[in-house]
User: Fold this.
Amino acid sequence: MGFFLETLFGGLMAGMLYSLVALGFVLIYKASGVFNFAQGAMVLFAALAMARFSEWLPVYAGIDNAIVANLIAFVAAGVVMFVVAWLIERLALRYLVNQEGTTLLMATLGISYFLDGIGQTIFGSDIYKIDVGMPKDPIMAFESVFEGGVMLNKEDLYAAVIAALLVGLLMLFFQKTVTGRALRAVADDHQAAQSIGIPLNRIWFIVWCVAGVVALVAGMIWGSKLGVQFSLTTVAMRALPVVILGGLTSVPGAIVGGLIIGVGEKLSEVYLGPYVGGGIEIWFAYVLALVFLLFRPQGLFGEKIIDRV
Amino acid sequence: MATKQIGDVILDVQNISLSFGGVKALTDISFDVREHEVRSIIGPNGAGKSSMLNCINGVYSPQQGAITFRGKKFSHMDSHQVATMGIGRTFQSLALFKGMSVIDNIMTGRNLRIKSNLFLQALRIGAAQREEEQHREFVEHIIDFLEIQAHRKTPVGQLPYGLQKRVDLGRALAMEPQLLLLDEPMAGMNVEEKQDMCRFVLDVNEEFGTTIVLIEHDMGVVMDISDRVVVLDYGKKIGDGSPEEVRTNPDVISAYLGTEH
Assistant:
């Protein structure tokens, strides 16, 4: 029982991190109807910026306190993501208002390759580390309930809490603020939104900023776990099945989808893995996504698409 | 109707020409709209009515000509600027925010009038809370006015067509526009729904004093509620005047009924 719970919690916490990346996809899709292929590149770009800033600050600015350096690096990386958002809106999206979804998708594909390249040009292409001082040592829980207790990874636990907080903030922003309402309006109909005076350009800038910050948080957490390197972009690919599962338009869907996939991966690896020689973790999410596409293409929480014929 | 005071020219359209590639949608169109009047644009299918509206609304930019709104002359505007200047519109094919409730849809119309900042809104404190309440109250008035109280929380995608058209009107009204552009507000409606919509349009015009530019197919409706009518055919203006004048204009008759030989 203790072992099962350990696997379960491990899966939940890994799932929370998938959710974080999936959230980036959902945000942009909700607010502009664009499937943002560049989300993975943004995660890498943000993580690179943060890693390098925190490395440069003690050397060039003489800031020795690790916490202060990390904080400044985080804010600076945030500013960099704002600039990226502004440039994307200014140079690409502005000219694509009212275009087909496919056109916009292709644009984000281009942006993704561009960000991958320029990020490594500016910040370098080695493996960097982000050390935000998250404890690596495990904690034991439920020792009184089970023999041996349940071992939890403290780093994962912290990451999950940060992710949960961010999700809460975003929900508040979308549901309770006027800007959030304007964002939802733009997602539904560009032209109608413009006709009542919602400035499309500003809204898109805001969305990409928010997606940039989400990418930064995801990049920071994943980066501190895995090291900041090119393979971070593939983390985004792992979030794709999460989005399919949860529904492209649903913030809670991204969370629940992430948790299901995280738990599913870990449990299937541990309990089914031995029978098929392991490696389930790598493809489990995609198979699950395929099944969902067959039976419930809008995802668990997505809006059902009904077209008038 | 008798109490209504028609004022000065509020919108002046001068020599507008618009073409898409080789297709001339509008050729040298001029007309004006006076304050507080109901001005209709009619014409057979493909006459350029919607194109005309989209020029005023800033969706299309005409190749020639200028539009003057309350003394300000422009040859091209974007939709957002037009909204800021006090021009609202509804859409021929519905363009509502389908996933949102009726009340949220109409609230989006208040967007330009909301002053409090994002942070206060999120926390729902102080001025932001009061402001939200004031706008909410205004929106409730509109909902009462359009008689859709029972549906205020319903996602608009689930409402029948006729009611969706009312929500579309409500959203435009929430802007408190000085000029309201209605693109075929009665298209696809049955007689009863049409009568309701006519009543709303006239009430908006009389109670709020909103100037209305209306595109309509149904000649009967237009003749009943308009003060003046512009008739377009193949992108050209063929008639302009009171409903009686237009009704007896030989060019208009031939456009609608075919030429006598």
The longest helix of chain A spans residues 2-32.
